[in-house]
Design the sequence.
DNA sequence: AAGATGCGGTCAGGATCTGGCCACATCTGT
DNA sequence: ACAGATGTGGCCAGATCCTGACCGCATCTT
């Protein structure tokens, strides 16, 4: 009895010629019974190969090659971009069965079979010459993301188990609205009925997703986009802060150009910054780049965060 | 446990990427024991696929060029991964005409034609429900990357103009060896004949690539991999820093995801970070986000910067 | 030398495969 | 309409293969 995989590879090779073969002919080639041949054909179909048949006199099995690889209208750049996108995603994850990175790896290994013959040498040369830096990111399964996407489209509630950052598990039942990809993480924006509020979940902490079959009436999103809401969630509160800096206004404007702040010169060498603080860490980064002394005139919470972090920095350097 | 044939086809796809994979990584992807993996590799060898290995630290399995691949189909997860990869790459860049992100955006819009009809509803629902966060990264054209890949494969010298970080332009003529994707940037590892040494170039600073038609005799790479050499080059002249953090490794990995650092757990609640210091300000930002105590074990310059900035923060809060 | 990788034999238990048999569906040619 | 030649899929008992665990070993790097 031959190795099954070997036989399947042989059958694939035979069928990829695109010719029709009668069952009788295939059983002779493979040296198996007609029943086993039928199982083999079913097996190929299970893997996604579109094997066509026709019963009756002159009946046959045939691999519908034209449907496996439909004519592609990707131009050269698009094909290369697809390849590079897969290479990049393949390097992002934990190499777990079912993970997106695993699926991306396999797709990356197959892509040339879906491109016109003229692009194959290019794919081969890119693959041979490209290295990607591994990037650790929490695993999410392609299956879970696509199930959730379908329930969003169909306005169907889902239930799942959520594990928060401290390891506590809760069962949730929500209306799903958007999935967001942000800084190597996948998030779900959903309405939580029990809490009567919007919630953002990290998809790598979501397990045991179940489709409830229960439809919901869509409600308006809580912000312009799910991404906006996600960002707001990551930045709590907005404390008014005023800082006097020992630096010229022009310097301050240059360093704080990505910060939404009001900047006024006091004199040639001193400047006032006024802003609504959303992240003390990002403001500290800007102040670090300024490399100038400063004084916090307003903003007790920010001052407290600075004191705490300052103490921490001093403590870190003690031997 | 997957059907053996299915698993072998998946393993073939994975190995076809040309990358080296450790046994550990493959066992995780395939969800089998190490012993079974070894049998699978033997099985592939028996079918004529030349799988190379290297034992010892950094050991791996890799598929050498040789045997033709059987016809392969995209499974559901692979199709989803392709879609997500394109979505992610489309959001990464500067939206410049000709850039990879531009091509990825177009391919993302065309993916349906790529896929069997049964997957179309899934693609549609993912597209409708997914948002991706824009990520600014230096732009590179798909055309340039593929031209360079071809010259690497064909051992052909290229000429180009290079603009360094200070804006100075030089003409270069080099032997190209590898393109590397690392932390959102594309690099080229090449041998520079004039300088008689290896050089790493950022591809977004490379312009006016010209194929010279002149072949070169390949020389051995300067390190185990181009990525290793790239890391050494990027780290050259930077201060080695070692920090002990009172936080679990998983938390640290989460926060330092865009930092090129080695992160090792000491125990459940303590972690060591080892890195070459690029910018003390950016590292301080990461440490601020960690919200945990830490101690600097190595890196006198960094410690001094922390002390100075700590004093500045403390001074800023005095009334 | 220690440790991290790959290697291959052996075993018991479990899983899958096989050919034969059967009733059935579909198609073509007379 | 019918006969015959094709493909279809369930069921069964017996045979075969696969698996993880265990073990001792080889190779490579630091």
Sequence:
């Amino acid at each position: 009895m031959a190795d099954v995989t070997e036989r399947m590879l042989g059958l694939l090779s035979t069928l990829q010629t695109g010719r029709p073969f009668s069952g009788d002919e295939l059983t002779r080639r493979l040296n198996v019974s007609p029943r086993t041949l039928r199982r083999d054909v079913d097996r190929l179909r299970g893997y996604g190969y579109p094997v066509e048949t026709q019963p009756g006199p002159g009946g046959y099995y045939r691999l519908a090659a034209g449907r496996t690889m439909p004519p592609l209208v990707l131009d050269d750049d698009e094909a290369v971009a697809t390849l590079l996108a897969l290479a990049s995603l393949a390097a992002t994850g934990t190499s777990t069965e079912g993970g997106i990175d695993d699926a991306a790896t396999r797709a990356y290994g197959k892509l040339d079979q879906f491109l016109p013959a003229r692009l194959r040498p290019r794919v081969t040369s890119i693959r041979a010459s490209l290295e990607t830096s591994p990037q650790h990111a929490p695993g999410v399964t392609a299956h879970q993301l696509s199930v959730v996407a379908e329930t969003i489209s169909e306005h169907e509630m889902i239930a799942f188990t959520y594990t928060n950052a401290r390891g506590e598990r809760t069962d949730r039942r929500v209306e799903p609205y958007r999935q967001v990809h942000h800084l190597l993480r996948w998030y779900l924006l959903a309405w939580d009925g029990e809490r009567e509020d919007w919630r953002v979940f990290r998809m790598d902490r979501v397990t045991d997703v179940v489709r409830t079959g229960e439809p919901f009436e869509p409600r308006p999103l809580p912000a312009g986009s799910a991404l906006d809401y996600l960002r707001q969630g990551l930045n709590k509160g907005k404390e008014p802060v005023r800082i006097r800096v020992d630096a010229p206004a022009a310097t301050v404007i240059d360093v704080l150009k990505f910060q939404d702040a009001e900047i006024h010169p006091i004199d040639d060498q001193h400047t006032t910054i006024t802003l609504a603080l959303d992240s003390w860490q990002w403001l500290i980064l800007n102040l670090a780049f300024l490399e100038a002394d400063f004084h916090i005139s307003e903003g007790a919470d920010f001052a407290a965060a600075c004191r705490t972090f300052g103490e921490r920095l001093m403590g870190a350097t003690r031997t």
